[in-house]
Structure formats: structure tokens, C-alpha cells
Amino acid sequence: MWRWPTPMATLSSATVRGGVRTATQLMNIGVPSDFARTDLETYADEVAASIEMNSAERGAPGFNRDGIVLLTAADVSNAQRHATTNVTVDATVGVSKPTWAADPDGGWNEWSAGTINLVIQLDVALDQAAAVNAVMTATEAKTQAMIEAGIPGTGTASDAIVLAWPIADGVRVERFAGPRSNVGSQVAIAVHAAITRAINTHPPDLSPPISNPPNAATTSESPR
Length: 224
Description:
Number of domains: 1
Shape: globular
Low-confidence stretches: none
Helix content: 25-40%
Radius of gyration: 18 Å
Order of helices and strands: EEHEEEEEEHEEEH
Mean pLDDT: 87
Number of helices: 3
Number of strands: 11
Strand order of the largest sheet: 3-2-1-10-7-5-4
Structural class: alpha/beta
Strand content: 25-35%
């Protein structure tokens, strides 16, 4: 669980309350590998209510039910963190079911959940284009880590990402977050390091092995 003392700007693909929003809390919920519920916001509210009740008994803060929620069958106790000067990344990594993004052979019909959840926190503000660029950079770094680890895929079918940064009010606003920009480079390094550490700490069981990338090449005539 993450709590921010002041609202943060966020861009995320979270299954519950994702998209573009401001948030003060974020939760990454571990679920069983056979989890099959589709009423995810209701489920997240049930978990939040349980946390709120347990927290009240201990005199601790609960979870705001407007908070962003991620779900994963990966063991959330094995989360890995890597921090740079301006960026902190937390990753929960389950890569036993990797997949190739471009699969013309119908891979979308035969997929299994396996999840890499990334929470990327910045201490500098981003404009909207830079935020999108940071998500792209993080995705590229994730795929680089998987390829270097010999995992045959560009990710998993249910990966999610949350990018959070301070609302611009007296802080520097970055316009660029590609891999060769200052902030983007830090995002890439932190994501790559966190995922690599997670894979090395808990190597995935990749049986049966998955083949090389599917042939996604197509041919077309040049436009006239």
C-alpha cells in the first residue's frame, strides 16, 4: 500500500480506478492464481473495508476507497524496489506465463494470467506528453529485462503500471521522459533493476517452454 500526504497526479492502466486522475492512495492486492472474479471494483472495496476494519482496531489509517487498485497473483511480499535520484520503482513480478505482444497466430484466444505490476513514483512533475513517454520508457525497460533474463516474451497478458508524480505547483515540470532524457533514463534504469532483481530472486517456472517470437511480419504495397 502507498499513501501520499498530498494528492499526486497519476496515469495508470490499473484495473480499478485507473486512467488519468489524482490520488492519495494506491494498493496492490495479491489474489489466488485461480482468481476469476470480474467485479473487480466491488472486490477491491471489500478488501478496502476489511483493511479499514483491521486498521481501526489497531488505530492505523485505513484505505481510501477512491484509491487506485492493482491486482496480481504474484506474491506481493516479494516486491522489489529500486530508487534513483528522482524515481522510485516498486515491482511485483510474475512471469511464468509470458506472451509476445504481436502474435498473428491467435494468441489472444489462449492466454493465461501472469502479471508484472509496476508502481513508478517521481519527485518531479511531468506534462501530459512526458507522462505518456515515461510509460513507454518503462515498458521498453521491462521488455529489455525479460529478454536479458531469457524469458520468451515482451511481457505478460495482464501487466499493469501506475505512474505518479507531484501536481505541478512550484516544482519543475519535465517535458521529456524518453530513455535518453534525464528523468526517462532514471525510469528505465529503476524499472529494469527492479524487474531483474525480482526475476533473479524468484526464477520463473517456464514449462512448457515458449518458442521464439511469432512471425508478425506482414507485406503491403507502398501507398500511391
